[in-house]
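Aim 2 progress. For ABC transporter permease, the working sequence is reproduced below.
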Amino acid sequence: MWAYFKWEFKQFFMNKKNIAVYVILLFLGLYFVLKVAPSYEPIEKVDVAEMEARFTTRDDFIKSVEGKDNIHPSVAFALAVFPQWNEYDRARIDAINEKDYLKYAEATAGWYLYSDQLTVNGDSFFYNPLYYTYGNNYAHADGHYGYGYTASRFTGYVEGSSELSMELFEERTALQTLQRMLNDYLPIVLFISCIFLSVDIVLKDRRNPSLLKGFPISDWKKLLMKGLVAFIGSILSFVPLYVVLIAIGLQNGFGDFSLPVPIYSYIEETFTNTAMSTFLLKNVLFIGVWFLFLIAIILFLSIIVKAEFANLFVSFIIIAAEWFYFERVMGAYSDIERYPTSYVQVGQVISGYRNFVYQSPDLTYQHGLTIIGCCTLFLVILTLIVSKFKRFKLIA
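Predicted structure tokens for this construct:
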């Protein structure tokens, strides 16, 4: 069996199609470093000019109405809340000018908490205008999430021991960039790579039937070795990420594994911080289980249908299915957490953002691992049973 594994391993990495997949991933990484990462503009960024303009506007208002009698209730409300708001902004401005980043983090955490408290349940104030672009019907909810996320993140900086910097505040360091990528489309890119790397892992044997008959092992063991090789090959699709992380780290710093990553809890409706190392490990584990699930689908289809198109079609349907039924808040009236396709956005599931947009208390990392793991186990057992029938032999 070891000889067969080595033969499959060699065939996998000499496959021109697989080499092309790795090269494309490398070019995508370089494109991200040269074009995408430099153009990143966070909604919640460090903008001293904006802080000063906001502070001056409120300060002028306070001076113009302070001490007057018979003022409108809305003016009285503004007069009551503006001084505390300005105190936070003044502290933030002074901290930036003094380059006291710990003081800035502390004042910023307070500013976002205070701003969210004033905005979330009222219509007197609004969140950052960038949340309201492109006709976003859920801008207020997104602003509430964004402010809570930012407040939790800066609270983590105050309580942690990480070396603070402007790049860290705007999430531009290498590890924070990786975190953002995992919360975006990186998992989908990796899943598509896994599909292309594995799609012909069984069907290519039709090109060397006589040679393969020389390995005296059962079809089930051959399928097991093929799955193992495909899994190793899929894991290696992470390698181009190292190029991205090194390049961004040299420009903006690498960050460290103790950085706080806010995790949203739908049940408690609040954020708690976890370490960057924990967040990344959970993503690697979840993506690994997804790799096994996709490979199990391909192995099963390869011995049943025996057509690469079927492998591609079904696998891509699994990846894309959520786009057809996705609707915000639908978790409140449907069992969306039971569908394995609801867990494709791995980073968003772990961070709790998917839990937030679906408003489903059960759309969690633990539930997702259970669902995907059980589906994988079911397919593996089914493939084992089917491979025992002569009709579905790998080589006739």
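The CA atoms of residues 72 and 78 lie 10 Å apart. This observation will guide construct design in the next reporting period.
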